[in-house]
Write a structure and sequence with these properties.
Layout: E1 7-15, E2 31-32, E3 35-36, H1 37-46, E4 54-59, H2 64-74, E5 81-84, H3 89-97, E6 102-107, H4 117-130, E7 132-138, E8 143-147, E9 150-155, E10 161-170, H5 171-184, H6 191-197, E11 203-206, H7 217-226
Parallel strand pairs: 1-4, 1-6, 4-5, 7-11
Antiparallel strand pairs: 2-3, 6-10, 7-10, 8-9
Length: about 240
């Protein structure tokens, strides 16, 4: 295969370079059932049912050796390439895309440990039909736009969803979305938003309320309950 040629398969890009400032520390290494949070993610990605072909983790270079060792234990069939993160999540994902030549890219946050191989596979399947896909969960609370400390408008709950990862894309589409965003100075919280900004469709795949992102210590407590992972239990 010639240099620069796109190869079949799916690369998982895991942004894991966040500072964890709201959590109060290195949340990816926080203990969850006797393993760090990131271990749960790597185990799901490494499951053959996920449909993935390779693994790229975007993280602080000081963590690269530890991540490689963890990946060799939990996701050995994928291998693992570690690349440095950027100043923002968007830059980190772009760094990850840049080192893979797989036809498809699946992006999943390193701080979402409750993801399952089945959800990964469903999102990937939807993306391969449409070009891009994202997991979501329906919004259950009444939601309003708030302006200057006052409710401005109540939004139709039935039309709203809370976005999760995994998200999956044709690599060329995701690359084009990142390049266009960089040129326009556009910042977004996730990659599906960048693809939507191009006017391209993104399939919506029902996710899982327990596929929670660890942002605060309360999230970790909730995950311990949902995952049924008492202290000292190995996932």
């Amino acid at each position: 295969m010639t240099a620069g040629e796109i190869r079949p398969g799916v690369s998982a890009v895991v942004p894991a370079a966040g500072s964890g400032s709201r959590f109060g520390g290195a949340k990816l290494w926080a203990e969850l059932g006797g393993q760090p949070v990131l271990a749960w993610v790597l185990r799901a990605l490494g499951d053959p049912a996920s449909g993935l072909s390779e693994l790229v983790v975007v993280a602080d270079p000081r963590d690269h050796r530890r991540i490689a060792e963890l990946s060799s234990e939990l996701a050995p069939r994928l291998g693992c390439r570690c690349v440095p993160g950027g100043a923002r999540r968007q830059e980190s994902v772009s760094n990850g895309i840049g080192v893979t030549a797989r036809e498809w890219v699946l992006v999943h946050d390193g701080a979402r440990p409750a993801v399952t191989p089945e959800l990964l596979a469903r999102v990937l399947g939807a993306a391969q039909r449409v070009g891009a896909a994202s997991a979501y969960v329906p919004v259950v609370d009444s939601t309003a736009r708030v302006v200057a400390g006052r409710l401005d408008a109540i939004l139709p709950r039935g039309e709203l969803g809370a976005i999760q990862t995994p998200q999956a894309f044709r690599r060329d589409l995701l690359l084009r979305a990142h390049q266009a965003a960089a040129a326009a100075g556009l910042e977004a919280d996730d990659d599906a938003a960048l693809v939507l900004a191009l006017g391209e469709p993104v399939a919506a795949v029902p996710g899982d309320p327990s596929n929670l992102k660890v942002t605060r210590t309360q999230d970790l407590l909730a995950l311990r309950t949902w995952l049924g992972a008492p202290e000292g239990h190995r996932p």
